[in-house]
Design a protein that fits this description.
The chain is an alpha+beta fold. About 35% of the residues lie in helices and about 25% in strands. The protein has helices at about 20-50, 100-140, 145-185, 300-305; strands spanning about 55-60, 65-70, 75-80, 85, 90-95, 190, 195-200, 210, 215-220, 225-230, 245-250, 255-265, 290-295, 310-320.
Length: about 325
């Protein structure tokens, strides 16, 4: 008897489980396509945008800080400023007791007056001996004056001329001393050399100071710049005059400063370290170095959003730009 296949359908429980390979392959190809598209988009962004910029977060604000020191010896009799105080150029910061300087000036002025009087007397003596010499020279022909008398007249005239030269030298010396005494008196009043903010005030009332004693610093906050430490591999296309955008942690990215590349430092930070690296000895490992790049900031933006020395900055240089 022939066996015929049963036409009765199998139940769902009896069917074998079939994995959806087609769907899984489609998903994999979709993900691969997205990855390729993302990579292509990333490359295009780098080619069109990213390759035109270099950036660093290793950047800090700086300024040419004015160090204020005493130029004369004396006791501090007045201190007019405190740390963080704004000052203008010419404002009086510190006053030193001017008693000694005043006395020195009066003495120098007296010496100058005496030298001038001596010079006036020496001029009169030169005129008198000159007239006497001419008279005797006229009489020597007739024999009314002997040769010895003429010689003596010449000597007197010569001595008078020498005395005048010495008096003039003395008056020049006295004038120089008087000028110095006047300058020293003026230096007892110490003024701000620039507009800025007072920092690191060390001077105290009553302190005895010597010439070159540091008193305080004045930071010209309206002349701030940025030292941006770029990796050496980033600097191939960086040039003086290129525009820079900067952000400061102080304002948490809410303020964007615009600057210009001013120049490059003469060496890397490692080259000017207190103990430079000795790469010629031992096991050497190459380390990418950083070179400080000086960036000038916009003074109007600084006035609107002041900065202080040492603040962290993010800097991005537009390689395709020029100032």
């Amino acid at each position: 008897m022939d066996m015929q296949a049963s036409t009765v359908p199998e139940s769902a429980a009896d069917r074998p489980v079939v994995k959806p390979r087609t769907k899984r392959c489609a998903l994999l190809f979709s993900l691969l396509g997205m990855a390729v598209a993302a990579a292509g988009g990333g490359f295009e962004y780098w080619r069109l945008v990213g390759s035109h910029y270099v950036s660093t977060d290793d950047a800090y604000t700086a300024a040419e800080v004015a160090q204020v020191a005493s130029e004369v010896e004396g006791s501090v009799m007045q201190v007019n400023v405190v740390d963080s105080q704004n000052v203008r150029r010419g404002d009086i910061l510190v006053m030193i007791d001017d008693t000694d300087a005043t006395l020195a000036l009066r003495q120098a002025q007296a010496d100058l007056a005496r030298a001038r009087a001596q010079t006036a007397a020496a001029v009169s003596d030169v005129e008198r001996t000159g007239i006497d010499l001419k008279r005797r020279e006229a009489l020597v022909v007739s024999g009314s004056v002997s040769g010895d008398e003429l010689t003596q007249a010449k000597n007197r005239a010569s001595d008078a001329k020498a005395a005048l030269d010495a008096a003039r030298a003395q008056i020049a010396l006295a004038r120089a001393r008087a000028d110095k005494a006047e300058i020293d008196l003026g230096r007892t009043v110490i003024r701000a050399p620039v507009d800025g903010v007072v920092a690191r005030r060390q001077v105290q009332l009553g302190q005895r100071v010597q010439p070159s004693t540091p008193l305080l610093s004045v930071v010209p906050v309206d002349q701030m710049y940025v030292n941006a430490n770029f990796k050496e591999v980033q600097l191939a296309k960086v040039r003086t005059g290129q525009r820079v955008e900067l952000e400061c942690d102080l304002y948490r990215g809410k303020v964007v400063y615009h600057g210009v590349v001013e120049g490059f430092d003469g060496g890397t930070g490692a080259a000017f370290a207190l103990i430079p690296a000795q790469n010629a000895t031992g096991n050497w490992i190459k380390v990418v170095q950083r070179l400080p790049v000086r960036i000038r900031l916009n003074p109007d933006e600084l006035a609107a959003h002041p900065l202080r020395v040492g603040l962290s900055m993010d800097a991005r240089v537009d390689l395709s730009s020029h100032s």
